[in-house]
Design a protein that fits this description.
binds flavin-adenine dinucleotide, FAD/NAD-bd_sf, BaiN-like, FAD, FAD/NAD(P)-binding domain, RsdA/BaiN/AoA(So)-like_dom, 2 domains, 410 residues, flavoprotein, alpha+beta, six-stranded antiparallel beta barrel, 19 strands, five-stranded parallel sheet
């Protein structure tokens, strides 16, 4: 049997490795438009490659996928984060789990992850077809004919679509598969960038660019279901960091732009109630009655942010603590617990993943085989699956790639 796996990213590599390890005699073609494997894997996690998560409770892991968690259940049970870690370690890459439960190679080098697959393929009969840009797939009876921009055709019995989404297009994932899949009878759900930073209407975040908080809660005003707590950062165009990425994932399909901004509220003291914060400010005031409020606030908040507090609240910076009323302090506490910003867009082209993809009800979650076009399989981000940052997207690619690879058995 001949199998064509299109896409030499995380999902395609795992699918191919599974097949060649389980069935060394199967004829496998791994088709990749780039001249090497795993370009995105190598740059992932800032080049360190956050391979998977250290969270062991699968139920909890599945809550990290705004889309696709139910579909993923079966594949994740058979190739859980713990099993993914064992798999890489058994293939010679030592991994470490950091305090925030992200798992990386000990070397902090994504090349080592791709190196595992290169070694497996070097010692197998697989055909690696680099610089092969798939342009079309036609089903003829029980066979698939794959054609390439370079002009040749390849006939196979089974095809695995592992072309990724359309984020970070410079890595090769340019959303090529969607049209072809529609022609083969599949529905592609709405697509949207996810895991991105936000651009804000206000320009002042620029002055705080680089200022970060280990923990902040960000919520969309008036939409209770959209909130997330985690690391947060001001940038020269708005806000970013894991909490912002997670929120961007939750609101991936909400519409917002310059004319219709979405208001977000940032709480940089999520572990303190408003009353506690207010009491602390009062205590500071009483202990420093003769000092200016400005200096007091500088001891409480990073200077650049406290400057924005009295600017945005229009407090005279020379005002002494003794002149600050309870009402003034309450207003400051309320402001710090809900810094308002209007988001007007996403950082252009800087999203990490594509939300949306192949409609999951048309795919068998155990085998990854199409229910509408037998012999066609899927793996990775091309599916309507996406997760938060923290190793969840690669984990989904490993798990679906392995499920497809195990299902293609004769
Ligand atoms: C900057 C960045 C950092 C990230 N960091 C992390 C992280 O640390 N942890 C994590 O879990 N996730 C991370 N992600 C997300 C994660 O990398 C992806 O979700 C994952 O790589 C998707 O794997 P995939 O195999 O489905 O697709 P891809 O890795 O995108 O692979 C698809 C492959 O298909 C090839 N291809 C596409 N079209 C064609 C065609 N027509 N013909 C032939 N080949 C084709 C592409 O060249 C590509 O190599 C990150 C993403 C980005 C952009």
């Amino acid at each position: 049997m001949r199998v064509g796996i299109i896409g030499g990213g995380a999902a395609g590599m795992m699918c191919a490795a599974t097949i060649v390890e389980e069935h060394p005699d199967m004829e496998v073609f791994l088709i990749e438009k780039n001249s090497s494997l795993g370009k995105k894997v190598i740059i992932s996690g800032g080049g360190r490659c956050n391979v998977t998560t250290g969270i062991e409770d699968l139920k909890l892991v599945l809550t990290k996928y705004p889309r696709g968690s139910k579909f993923l259940q079966s594949a994740m049970h058979r190739f859980s984060p713990a099993q993914v870690r064992d798999w890489f370690e058994n293939h010679g890459v030592d991994l470490k789990c950091e305090e925030d439960l992200r798992v990386f190679p000990v070397s902090n080098d994504g090349h080592d992850i791709v190196g595992v697959f290169e070694n497996i393929f070097k010692n197998s009969k697989i055909d690696l077809l680099f610089k092969h840009n798939m342009k079309n797939i036609v089903k003829k009876k029980n066979k698939f004919v794959i054609s390439f921009a370079e002009g040749e055709n390849l006939e196979v019995d089974k095809v695995v679509m592992a072309l990724g989404g359309q984020a970070y297009r410079q890595t090769g994932s340019t959303g090529d598969g969607y049209d072809i899949l529609e022609k083969l009878g599949h529905k592609i759900t709405d697509l949207s960038p996810s895991l991105n930073s936000f651009l804000t209407q206000e320009k002042w975040p620029k002055e705080l660019s680089g200022l970060s908080f280990e923990k902040a809660t960000i919520k969309v005003k008036g939409m209770k279901k959209y909130q997330f707590t985690g690391p947060f950062l001001f940038t020269h165009t708005g806000v970013s960091g894991p909490a912002v990425f997670a929120l961007s994932s939750l609101i991936a399909f909400e519409k917002y732009d310059r004319q219709n901004p979405l208001e977000i509220l940032i709480d940089v003291f999520p572990d303190l109630s408003l009353d506690n914060l207010f009491e602390q400010l009062q205590k500071l005031r009483e202990e420093n009655l003769k000092k200016t409020f400005k200096n007091t606030l500088h001891n409480f908040l990073p200077k650049s942010l406290s400057e924005k507090v009295y600017e945005n609240l229009d407090i005279n910076i020379e005002k002494k603590n003794v002149e600050m009323s309870k009402k003034d302090l309450r207003q400051v506490a309320e402001y710090i617990k809900a810094l308002p910003l209007k988001i007007i867009g996403r950082g252009a082209g800087d999203e990490f993943v594509t939300a949306g993809g192949v409609e999951l009800s048309e795919v068998d979650p155990k085998t990854m085989e199409s229910k509408v076009c037998p012999g066609l399989y899927f793996a990775g981000e091309i599916l309507d699956i996406d997760g938060f940052t923290g190793g969840f997207n690669l984990q989904a690619s490993w798990a679906t790639g392995r499920a497809g690879g195990l299902a293609i058995d004769c």
